[in-house]
Specification:
Blueprint lengths: L2 H8 L6 H12 L15 H13 L2 E4 L6 E4 L6 H13 L8 H4 L11 H10 L3 E6 L2 E6 L18 H15 L6 H8 L3 H13 L3 E4 L8 H5 L2 E3 L2 E3 L1 E4 L9
Antiparallel strand pairs: 1-2, 3-4, 5-8, 6-7
Helix pairs in contact: 4-6, 7-8
Amino acid sequence: MKRDDKAAVRKKPVVDWEKRILGALEKARSKGLARSRLSPPRKPEAEEALAAEIRKGRILRLGSPPKSLYFLAQFAPNVGQAVEAIDRGAAQSPARLFLEKELGKFCRPGEAFFLKEAVQELVHGKILVRLTRGKTSYYVHRTGWLPPLDATPSSGPFDPEKVEKAYRELVDEQGFLDVRPAELASRSGAPLESLKVWLLEQSRAGRAHLARGDWSLATEEERRAAVVLDGQPHLRVRLEPQVVGASP
């Protein structure tokens, strides 16, 4: 075999890295690909092709190495998709408290890069309620916190005397001074939100004493009726004897 023929045999075919990378991302679509899936390591030609496509805006990189994911621009996730995923996922467990990282499990890998921004948007939009305990923040979906539109209607305007009467009846029946706001609203016929505001005012005035209770054992109805004080939900309340006459 001639020398030129041997050289031709040894010569490797030229790889079109631009085409290979774009093709791989086209197949991956919204899943994206890690850097290791785009080309073997230490391939300067591939690095140059990838960098060029990023500069052109045809490829987007999300996250920092080594956890980056690459997407074709038309398939790249965004914060809106993360918001929808978290909203949809958290609504399936409306009475559960989530850590921020647990909310991230509702996102696809690419959407998770927008976790903090998405959670902030959901809190700002009052889709999620943020609760704090010490330095730890928890989040609960609004469907597990706010009363449903078809909740049992109240019997009329807020009346402190009816609340006081209902409280005495519950104490007599149950034998405990601490009662649940949910039961107090149901027994007195008071509008739930008005009752919660009134209980907060009585608490600040020293005429009501709120207690945390056990959130893990509370029903969905009890959690909706919880009174938030200092960022913490309170499931029980004790009224002092003389609270009637204090305005809601």
